[in-house]
């Protein structure tokens, strides 16, 4: 994280200190660094190139700094200026920086400005020349690669091994850099190693440490830094793991389907689904050939005992991903509790949270399977459905508001099982009697409330569990009670209930099931929920219509 930018003119004058990122610092994609063996391998202290601490660049140190540390920083400063001089042969603007930093008077001026802005000796900085930031230029890249190669000691062929990455003969690195950013998902604050062999049981053929998975220092550094960059910029937390993803082509944040799956756009409930459809149309019509050949890659990562754990790897075409995400949103659509329209599409973690009382209780394998279902379009696992049914039953018995994400997840399960008749709203023509058994219980509950008012524990609290498992034993008993309730209603409302109940019994006919399987219990729950939402929506519309008529009469 680079916090300060020290500015120089083309003739080597100091022109100011600029805080980056509003004082919080800024990340740069191309920061030249030396790995630890290169830093400590020389007879004199070494430092990184271009980006270093202000203690090294400007010799900003504490007034009471130890003499040993002071001498070390002075030596590193000299090394830094020497690097600038060597690189200036290829990038001439670097000579202005070297000229400024080798002038004691100008260094004193720089330190004064850094102190004024309350910079700390350990803060990282970069020096620019007017509008030229060396980190954004490439003239020095080839020189830097050659310089780093010159720091490596010569190895004999006996010490070389085949790299497991590219198959080249390399001098294997015995240790690996650490992956940062996994502290919140089981990793260590200091970082975790992607490859480590610190136990005898992990080693073989007499090989020590990371020679068991031979890679050059350059390769190890490259993939660790790439992974760190992905974790910083393209990762989201999914329970006890992070999902880091990337694409083979250039995909903007606005066109990233995985970002929609994490958190659908808020503008409208179907905004993400519409975006996906538009993008699919553009790919298939040939308007976006850049997207047609692109692929996606997704990693689920966590930390475990100081090591990086890769829980899942998914890969596929960009078009398939967009289609899967569109299907995920479409399958999750369900009517809102008040019946006034579709509920807002839930975030992925809201769907996962609908399965447990607390997200901390969510087993990682469940989350992995659910995430795979979301972005690949595969069938939702049976254990996910079972947990949804249990949580739904608990909410109904406790008279808690229905969870939209949970109802949408049960609906999505049946759609992916091939139930083409399943809809977001009430479906009076659904072919399965279990669905209509749920509708019937909802109607009996509304009937009781209309006839008796709020009587505490009603039909639902007393009978839902039994009715959703053995409707053949319960619904007949409720039908007898319904006749008594209808007798207490006024003619119009009584006729309406009789008609609705008759329609539902007409769909069930004589096929009322004695017992229901797990899948059938979820159909029962969906029928119950959609019937209640439909009734609420109809009541709201009737009330609005009556209010409009009253206003007209008053006028």
Description:
The protein is of the alpha+beta class and 555 residues long. It has 20 helices and ten strands. The protein has four domains: 2-151, no CATH class; 157-225, no CATH class; 238-425, no CATH class; 426-555, no CATH class. The protein has helices spanning 36-40, 54-57, 67-87, 94-101, 104-116, 141-151, 217-233, 257-262, 271-284, 289-292, 318-332, 348-353, 364-376, 382-397, 404-416, 433-452, 459-469, 471-486, 491-508, 518-554, and strands at 2-8, 14-19, 52-53, 124-129, 161-162, 169-170, 235-238, 241-247, 295-304, 307-317. Strands 2-1-4-3 form a four-stranded mixed β-sheet. The protein has a four-stranded antiparallel β-sheet with strand order 7-8-9-10. Strand 1 (2-8) and strand 2 form a beta hairpin. Helix 11 (318-332) crosses helix 13, helix 14 (382-397) packs across helix 20 (518-554) and helix 16 (433-452) runs antiparallel to helix 17. The longest helix is centred in the C-terminal third of the chain and has 37 residues, at 518-554. Mean pLDDT is 86; it is low at 540-555.
């Amino acid at each position: 994280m680079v916090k300060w930018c020290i500015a120089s003119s083309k003739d080597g004058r100091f022109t100011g200190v600029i805080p980056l990122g509003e004082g919080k610092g800024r990340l740069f994609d191309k920061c030249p660094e030396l790995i630890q063996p290169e830093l400590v391998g020389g007879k004199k202290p070494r430092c990184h190139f271009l980006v270093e601490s202000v203690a090294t660049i400007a010799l900003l140190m504490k007034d009471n700094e130890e003499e040993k540390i002071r001498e070390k920083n002075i030596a590193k400063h000299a090394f830094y200026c020497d690097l600038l001089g060597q690189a200036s042969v290829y990038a001439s603007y670097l000579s202005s920086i070297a000229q400024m930093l080798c002038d004691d008077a100008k260094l004193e001026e720089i330190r004064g400005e850094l102190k004024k802005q309350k910079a700390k000796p350990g803060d990282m900085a970069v020096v620019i020349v007017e509008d030229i930031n060396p980190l954004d230029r490439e003239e020095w890249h080839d020189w830097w690669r050659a310089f780093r190669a010159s720091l490596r000691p010569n190895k004999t062929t006996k010490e070389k091994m085949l790299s497991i990455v590219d198959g080249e003969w390399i001098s294997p690195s015995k240790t690996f850099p650490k992956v940062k950013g996994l502290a919140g998902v089981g990793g260590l604050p200091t970082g975790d190693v992607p490859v480590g062999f610190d136990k005898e049981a992990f080693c073989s053929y007499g090989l020590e440490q990371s020679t068991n998975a031979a890679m050059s220092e350059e390769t190890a550094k490259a993939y660790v830094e790439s992974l760190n960059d992905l974790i910083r910029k393209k990762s989201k937390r999914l329970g006890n793991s992070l999902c880091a993803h990337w694409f083979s082509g250039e995909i903007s944040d606005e066109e990233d389907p995985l970002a929609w799956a994490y958190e659908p756009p808020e503008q409208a409930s179907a905004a993400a689904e519409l975006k996906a459809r538009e993008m699919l149309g553009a790919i298939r019509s040939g308007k976006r050939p850049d997207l047609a050949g692109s692929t996606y890659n997704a990693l689920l990562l966590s930390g475990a005992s100081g090591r990086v754990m890769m829980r899942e790897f998914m890969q596929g075409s960009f078009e398939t991903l967009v289609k899967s995400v569109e299907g995920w949103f479409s399958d999750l659509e369900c009517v809102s509790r008040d019946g006034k329209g579709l509920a807002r599409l839930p975030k992925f973690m809201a769907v996962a949270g609908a399965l447990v009382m607390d997200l901390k209780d969510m087993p990682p394998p469940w989350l992995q399977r659910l995430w795979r279902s979301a972005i690949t379009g595969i069938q939702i696992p049976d254990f996910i459905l079972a947990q949804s049914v249990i949580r739904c039953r608990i909410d109904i018995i406790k008279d808690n508001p229905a969870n939209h994400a949970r109802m949408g997840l049960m609906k999505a399960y049946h759609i992916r099982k091939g139930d083409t008749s399943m809809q977001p709203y009430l479906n009076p023509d659904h072919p399965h009697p279990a669905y209509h058994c749920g509708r019937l219980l909802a109607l009996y509950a509304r009937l009781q409330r209309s006839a008796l008012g709020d009587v505490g524990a009603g039909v639902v609290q007393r009978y839902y569990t039994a009715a959703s498992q053995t409707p053949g034993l319960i619904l007949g008993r409720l039908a007898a009670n319904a006749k008594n309730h209808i007798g207490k209603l006024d003619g119009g409302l009584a006729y309406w209930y009789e008609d609705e109940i008759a329609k539902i019994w007409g769909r069930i006919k004589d096929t009322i099931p004695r017992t229901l399987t797990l899948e059938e219990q979820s159909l029962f729950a969906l029928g119950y929920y959609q019937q209640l939402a439909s009734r609420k929506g109809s009541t709201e519309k009737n009330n609005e219509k009556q209010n409009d008529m009253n206003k007209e009469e008053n006028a």
